[in-house]
Design a protein that fits this description.
It is a single chain. By secondary structure, the protein is α+β, with helices and mostly antiparallel strands. It folds into 2 domains: 2-72, no CATH class; 85-248, no CATH class. 38% of the residues lie in helices and 22% in strands. The strands form 3 sheets. The protein has a 4-stranded mixed sheet, with helices on one face. A 3-stranded antiparallel sheet has the order 5-6-7. The protein is elongated. Mean pLDDT is 68; it is low at 75-98 and 164-191.
Length: 249
């Protein structure tokens, strides 16, 4: 299975790559992606079909069941795009717009960074942008916003607990910040629920450089009161802070 930008069709026809299997083989050879037979692996890269043509962002993967690939020219890109909307509907899972991960290309570089996005009534904003909403006053002035964030994550994770570890939502944002929602499940390498939830919290807090110790404690306490992860507060706190530690070293 291969997903491509619509504007790629003329290029694929020119190079006789309209067949998905042939396109997958061409991309794998072009970026030296050689996983063993039946082994799970994935790779991201940039490819060109013509020497002077545009570059396309490539995500290519293989597991025991199938081979997949995605090509885009718009930016930023998703790290993963396992489309799972129909499976959600079949299980009766409400399709919630919540937390998601994307890739953002840093200006004037070839580097990409993982970007965490959180749904707001007016659209999606990153954790880095969201911290600007924190008032610079005392903890008491920050508490309503901290409580809203904690409740948001707790509701998301409680939903995941109730629906077979379904990962929530991924989004594709273009330069105009339009959003396309795709529901996904981590097929082939599902995270355990506790690990996934701790990862969400740590990624969010990593973007909050203005968080003080009191902010961290209050945020985690409010989350722990509402989320049904089965951890003690100290257990949750230790896991989140341990995951944050490498980023602060």
């Amino acid at each position: 299975m291969f997903h491509c930008d619509p504007n790629l069709e003329p290029v694929l026809k020119q190079h006789h790559l309209m067949d998905a299997a042939r396109l997958w083989d061409w991309c794998a050879h072009h970026v030296n992606f050689i996983p063993g037979h039946g082994l799970s692996d994935k790779k991201t890269a940039e490819v060109q079909f013509d020497n002077n043509g545009p570059s396309y962002r490539l995500y290519i993967s293989q597991n025991q069941l199938q081979r997949k690939g995605w090509l885009w020219q718009s930016q930023p890109k998703l790290r993963e795009l396992y489309q799972n909307h129909l499976l959600c509907e079949a299980r009766g899972v409400p399709t919630t717009q919540a937390v998601c991960y994307a890739e953002q290309r840093l200006p004037d570089t070839q580097c990409w960074r993982a970007l965490m996005l959180v749904a707001q009534p007016t659209g999606y904003i990153s954790a880095h942008e969201q911290q600007k909403q924190l008032p610079e006053q005392s903890l008491a002035a920050r508490q309503p916003l901290l409580n809203a964030w904690a409740t948001h994550f707790a509701q998301l994770h409680n939903q995941r607990l109730a629906h077979h570890n379904l990962h929530p939502v991924n989004v594709l944002m273009n330069d105009q910040r339009h959003v396309q929602i795709d529901h996904l499940e981590h097929l082939g390498y599902q995270w355990r629920t506790v690990v996934a939830s701790v990862n969400d919290l740590a990624c969010f807090m990593r973007g909050m450089s203005q968080f003080e110790t009191a902010d961290t404690e209050y945020f985690l306490q409010q989350y722990w009161r509402e989320c049904k992860l089965g951890l003690t507060y100290q257990g949750l706190r230790q896991r989140v802070l341990a995951q944050l530690a490498p980023a602060k070293m």
